[in-house]
Amino acid sequence: MSTQKDSYFDYRVVHEDETGRILVANSLTSFESDDHRNDVVVGGSFAGAPTGVLPVRRGARGWLAHEAGPGLDDAGVAGLEISDRFGVPAAAVATMSARIADGMGLLEGTISRVNKSAAALGLEPGITGQEATRIMLARTSPGEFRDVTGIVDESTVTLLETDQGGIYSCWSSSRVTGQHPSDVFLLASHGAKTMALYVLEINPKGVIVNDAGRALDDSGIEGLAELDLHGIAAAAVSADSARIGDASSTYGGVISAANDAAAKVGVRVGQGAKEAAELMLNGGRAVS
Hints:
The chain is α/β, with parallel strands linked by helices. Helix 8 links the parallel strand 10 and strand 11. Helix 2 packs parallel to helix 3. The longest helix is centred in the middle third of the chain and has 10 residues. It is built from 11 helices and 12 strands.
């Protein structure tokens, strides 16, 4: 039986003809499996490095995601250049033109960034996401599976271990297994609903994510409220202070939003993520 999480991450076919399909999902992680060599895919994820490799690996003809800031070092669109290495067209919608983690919303968003492969097809900033995907489908041939090994570090790194638990970093909690009620995770992903659904599966003590430039309707941090309902302390660093998609950068970021559970242990806007993580771990007492 499909769960609420499964249903939220299912992709849908929004267009299909003799040339191929356009698929839409709330996250690019929805395209980690299956054969997508005849598909243009749209995912509500940020268009960064760890997310951008996902459709490329599975053979997508082209892909569209969210600009997410683009934040420090343009990390929110770093996946576009990676996609170019394989000749795969990719584009991102402007941060405030669409909700992040809302795949269908991206179709109505305004394109702000295109890679060289997409520009060669005639894509340009200012068109809608829907127009971009139709051009990709009409002007590309079926893709191929591609080896992206080594481009993105998907490991979990130990930052601190104590008798009370640990502080760890990784790009997404979707890469973490088991339950972690004593641990705090610094993630390189955005703070939207998809993040919360993944985090609930590992049940951590606390989590710090990237606010992805907040995005339309503050969707870049709406997952913090969802985690509050489950008593999980959650905060976000500003996209301008940390590279989204880079977990090590999150640790050096500056807090831009926090839920009530995080505020109760002393996490506040303007604080460094390292201090905030220690407060979450120790119930309001910093380690150092």
